[in-house]
Structure formats: C-alpha cells, structure tokens
Design a protein that fits this description.
The protein is an all-beta fold. 0% of the residues lie in helices and 56% in strands. The chain contains no helices and eleven strands. Strands 2, 4, 5, 6, 9, 10 and 11 form a seven-stranded mixed sheet that branches. Strand 9 and strand 10 form a beta hairpin. It is globular. The termini are far apart. 28% of the residues are buried.
Length: 119
Amino acid sequence: QVQVVESGGGLVQPGGSLRLSCAASGFTFSGYAVNWYRQAPGKGRELVAGDSTTGSTTYADSVKGRFTISRDNYKNTVYLQMNRLKPEDTAVYYCNANAVVLGRKRDYWGQGTQVTVSS
C-alpha cells in the first residue's frame, strides 16, 4: 500500500520553530521529486518548498531563508524545518511526491498537518 503521512504540526508562538515530517510507505522517496504545499484559510494551495530528483531546491519567496526542505533516504522521510515562524505561516501543510515510473505518472499526497502560529 502506498501512503504518505505528515506529522509534526501544532501550535507554536511567533518566532518559534517546527519540523514537519513526511514518511512514505509502499515506495521510496529516492527518485521522486518532493514538495511541501500549504493552504491557509481563505487562500489557495501554495507551493512552499520543493526538492527535485537532481537535488535542486526551491522555496516560496515568503519562506525563503526561514524554511528548509531535506530528505533522509535511509528513513524514507522528508522534512520541512520551519524557523522564525509568523502568524501568516498558519496553514495546513501537505507533503507531495511525484515522478514518472515505468512511463506512468505517480503523484502521492498526504492528508496534511495543521500548523498554527499564534501567541
């Protein structure tokens, strides 16, 4: 069974930090592009950070310098380290992995984890 599960969300004060985890089962992240998206109340889904299969990373301007995406291939887990959090970072964060495998597009999503930044 293929599954992607996010964890690590919660309530944090402005200026604080959280590390989100995305664990995969049924497949391995190696060879997949991985991304973190978020959707804030009243807004559309936004690409926050991405890590390509070639090792290049991209970040939304709003989080650049504060967030870091990384992988632990041994643990088959993707992380999003979030520092200096702001109230506007409040959103549901989703993990995504995608690739073309044997000519077929694979696109996996987790269920999301809530991040609330508030004092």
